[in-house]
C-alpha cells in the first residue's frame, strides 16, 4: 500500500500564498518561518508514521515547487516520492486528478486531499477498519455540525455509502467526508472506470462524484468514523488560520 496526495489545485482563495505555490505547499506552521510545515508535510508525516514507504503526489498548478522540494521531502520522511502530472489541473476538477493516479491505485492507497490538515489518528482509524471485505473506506466525521459547503455523506451500517454530495440538507447527513480514503487494490479498476465516466460527463465534478457513480453501479463504499478529531479543510484564509492553530498540536 502507498500514500497518495492530490496536490494539483491552485487554491486561488489563498492568495498571495498561491501566487507562487500550490495549495498543498502553503505553510501551516508559524508565519514567516522557512521551516514551517505545509499540508503536504503533514500528509507525508502521517503516511510515514503508519509504515508506508512510498507516496505518489498528483501535481499540476505550480508543480515546479513540488518538484524542487521532492528530494528534501524524501530525506525528511524516509519516503520514495513519485510525482504524477495532471495536465488539466487549472481546467478540470479533481475527479480527473484522481484518475491521473489510476496506475498506482493498483497497489492499494491511502488517499489524502492536499488541503486537509488532520492528525495521523485518521489514517490509523482507516487501517483499523479493514478486514471485513471492504474495498473503499472513507474517513467520516460524525461529530461536526454541518453546513452547506461540506462534503456530506449518508451511510447505512450494512450497505455503506448511499449518497455523497455537497448538495444535501445537512440534517440528512450521517457525517462529513474529510478527504481521506483507504482504497484497496481490488477497487482500482472499477474506481478508475467510475472516475472516467464522471469527468467525461462533466469535467467540473469532484472525485467524490466518482464514488457516487460507484455506489450507483452497486459497488459498496464503506465509512470509518474518526471520532472527535481536530481537522480542517483549507479553502480560504480563515481556514488557514484554523489550520495553523491545530497543526501545532499534532
Unreliable stretches (pLDDT < 50, length at least 5) are none
CATH architecture: Alpha-Beta Complex
Elements, N to C (H/E): EHEHEHHEEHEEEEHHEEH
Q: CATH class, please?
A: Alpha Beta
Pfam family, one: NTP_transferase
Keywords: Nucleotidyltransferase, Transferase
GO molecular function, one term: nucleotidyltransferase activity
Protein name: Phosphocholine cytidylyltransferase family protein
Main traits of this protein?
250 residues, GlmU-like, 23% strand, 8 helices, Nucleotide-diphossugar_trans, two-stranded antiparallel ribbon, alpha/beta, globular, nine-stranded mixed beta sheet, Spore Coat Polysaccharide Biosynthesis Protein SpsA, Chain A
Amino acid at each position: 500500500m502507498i500514500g497518495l496526495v492530490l496536490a494539483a489545485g491552485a487554491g486561488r482563495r489563498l492568495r498571495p500564498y498561491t501566487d507562487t505555490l500550490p495549495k498543498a505547499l502553503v505553510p501551516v506552521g508559524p508565519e514567516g518561518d522557512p521551516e514551517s510545515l505545509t499540508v503536504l508535510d503533514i500528509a507525508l508525516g502521517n503516511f510515514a508514521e503508519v509504515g508506508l514507504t512510498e507516496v505518489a503526489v498528483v501535481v499540476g498548478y505550480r508543480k515546479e515547487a513540488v518538484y524542487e522540494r521532492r528530494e528534501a521531502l524524501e530525506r525528511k520522511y524516509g519516503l520514495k516520492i513519485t510525482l504524477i502530472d495532471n495536465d488539466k489541473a487549472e481546467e478540470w476538477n479533481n475527479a480527473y486528478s484522481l484518475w491521473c493516479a489510476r496506475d498506482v491505485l493498483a497497489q492499494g492507497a491511502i488517499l489524502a486531499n492536499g488541503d486537509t490538515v488532520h492528525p495521523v489518528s485518521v489514517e490509523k482509524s482507516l487501517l483499523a477498519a479493514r478486514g471485513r471485505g471492504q474495498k473503499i473506506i472513507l474517513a467520516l466525521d460524525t461529530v461536526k455540525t454541518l453546513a452547506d459547503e461540506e462534503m456530506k455523506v449518508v451511510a447505512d451500517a450494512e450497505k455503506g455509502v448511499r449518497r455523497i454530495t455537497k448538495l444535501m440538507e445537512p440534517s440528512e447527513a450521517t457525517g462529513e467526508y474529510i478527504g481521506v480514503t483507504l482504497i484497496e487494490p481490488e477497487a482500482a479498476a472499477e474506481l478508475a472506470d467510475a472516475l472516467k465516466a464522471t469527468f467525461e460527463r462533466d469535467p467540473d465534478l469532484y472525485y467524490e462524484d466518482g464514488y457516487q457513480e460507484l455506489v450507483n453501479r452497486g459497488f459498496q463504499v464503506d465509512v470509518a468514523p474518526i471520532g472527535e478529531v481536530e481537522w480542517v479543510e483549507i479553502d480560504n484564509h480563515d481556514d488557514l488560520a484554523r489550520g495553523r492553530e491545530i497543526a501545532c498540536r499534532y
